[in-house]
């Protein structure tokens, strides 16, 4: 966070009329975000909003924050758009190489460790909160979270990004272990919808993906189809 | 049969460095390295239903040696063991290489190294030393064995040429042919480690040449369900039971030979 603040101040100083120009000329591109991932029997469900902001301007309202790292391993990106894209590209390369060497599909745990390695080593320069989720034949569906700072922990459910703060209560009360894929999709879309309603940095459409042994199924829930939580 | 470097009869030598092929496509230095392995005493590794067992015939050249010194079975990682034959100093150096590979893998990828991958990496290292005239090939072969929940028991052998093969049963060293014959008689896929450890001891006792080599120590180690995936030397009571079984089997055979006469 300190690094991001120094960077933005530096950029502001470069622009001599920073008080007069809109903030989106000076602010870093951020995936404000709400992201989440849930394990179920036989796989994982992941979801994200689609808003990318530079300050108050929405630079991309249809962003895809669910990034494939390998055939059955995805990551959900939050924080600096540039940082998370760069890290994801690096891990995609490393994991692909590793998989070819081993002549085997890579483990989700391996992908998560590679993310952790980069996020921890360069923790002072990066602003990246990443959730790694996928399926492998050893341990089935798994969710690993790598928040800013570069810690790594496996969780059955994980939420991240600026919008996640608004849905911790919702998750605590509504998540139950051993749900079906459909129940998970319902839970994720409901939670994201609530967060997008309250967090200014989250919004747009809901992108979902279900990853299992048989492959990846992606879907989009458009603005007018978002789950409604109030009659207003 | 050697071809000489401008020797008196006018021929040319092709065996002075590993960077030279002979006209019939052989790299003599690598073959000579394998000879070094064949001069060493025997080591065997057998893979069974629930683990891997190693046995090494460690010849004791002097009564002054401390018992248990000059071990020929190494721990490469918690779940991987390595039994060697050939130049012991070369083998020790390679065990360090294997340890580093396994450790780096865990550090980079967060889990145990698969044995196939480890043996390929170490084999690649061994192979590198067969390419240049400035170094000599490693004069040792080794057998790697491991056990884990997902892949089960695995057994690989690497030789001085730098190739690695997967095996159900494998022998290296001076009595490898005799040992292989004995190993082939076993139905290892249906045996457990406890049963197999006795058979391994028996095979080492069978192939040991009482006339040419006198005293020897039997080194026995295993890794499998029975050790919870940890490679370790076989416990004292299991060892003693195995050695007793081995000695008794040999006596029976001697007795039956006498009867036949």
From TrEMBL, chain A:
Compartment(s) where it occurs, according to its Swiss-Prot or TrEMBL record: Cytoplasm; Nucleus
Main location, first listed in the record: cytoplasm
Record key words, sorted: Cytoplasm, Hydrolase, Immunity, Nucleus, Protease, Proteasome, Threonine protease, Zymogen
UniProt record, GO biological process: immune system process; proteolysis involved in protein catabolic process
GO molecular function, one term: threonine-type endopeptidase activity
Active site: 33 (nucleophile)
Any one Pfam family match given in the protein's UniProt record, by short name: Proteasome
InterPro entries on file: Ntn_hydrolases_N, Pept_T1A_subB, Proteasome_bsu_CS, Proteasome_sua/b, Proteasome_suB-type
Known catalytic reactions: Cleavage of peptide bonds with very broad specificity
Matching CDD domains: proteasome_beta_type_6 (cd03762)
Signal peptide (UniProt feature, chain positions): none
Coiled coil start-end: none
Entry-linked PANTHER family: METALLOPROTEASE TLDD (PTHR32194), PROTEASOME SUBUNIT BETA (PTHR32194:SF14)
Oligomeric and partner information: The 26S proteasome consists of a 20S proteasome core and two 19S regulatory subunits. The 20S proteasome core is composed of 28 subunits that are arranged in four stacked rings, resulting in a barrel-shaped structure. The two end rings are each formed by seven alpha subunits, and the two central rings are each formed by seven beta subunits. The catalytic chamber with the active sites is on the inside of the barrel. Component of the immunoproteasome, where it displaces the equivalent housekeeping subunit PSMB6. Component of the proteasome complex.
Family to which this protein belongs: Belongs to the peptidase T1B family.
Protein name: Proteasome subunit beta
GN (gene name): PSMB6
From TrEMBL, chain B:
Gene3D superfamilies registered for this protein in UniProt: Glutamine Phosphoribosylpyrophosphate, subunit 1, domain 1
Keywords, in A-Z order: Acetylation, Cytoplasm, Nucleus, Phosphoprotein, Proteasome
Region (Disordered), start-end ranges: 233-261
Record field: compositional bias (Basic and acidic residues): 233-249
Subcellular location: Cytoplasm; Nucleus
Database matches in Pfam families: Proteasome, Proteasome_A_N
Transmembrane segments: none
Entry-linked InterPro entries: Ntn_hydrolases_N, Proteasome_alpha, Proteasome_alpha-type, Proteasome_asu_N, Proteasome_sua/b
Residue stretches of biased makeup (Acidic residues): 250-261
GO process annotations (BP): ubiquitin-dependent protein catabolic process
GO cellular component, as recorded: cytosol; nucleus; proteasome core complex, alpha-subunit complex
SUPFAM superfamilies documented for this protein: N-terminal nucleophile aminohydrolases (Ntn hydrolases)
The Proteasome alpha-type subunits domain, residue ranges: 14-36
SMART domains: Proteasome_A_N
Oligomeric and partner information: The 26S proteasome consists of a 20S proteasome core and two 19S regulatory subunits. The 20S proteasome core is a barrel-shaped complex made of 28 subunits that are arranged in four stacked rings. The two outer rings are each formed by seven alpha subunits, and the two inner rings are formed by seven beta subunits. The proteolytic activity is exerted by three beta-subunits PSMB5, PSMB6 and PSMB7. Interacts with AURKB. Interacts with CDKN1A. Interacts with MDM2 and RB1. Interacts with the C-terminus of TBXA2R isoform 2. Interacts with DNAJB2.
Family: Belongs to the peptidase T1A family.
Protein name as it appears in the record: Proteasome subunit alpha type
Organism for this UniProt entry: Esox lucius
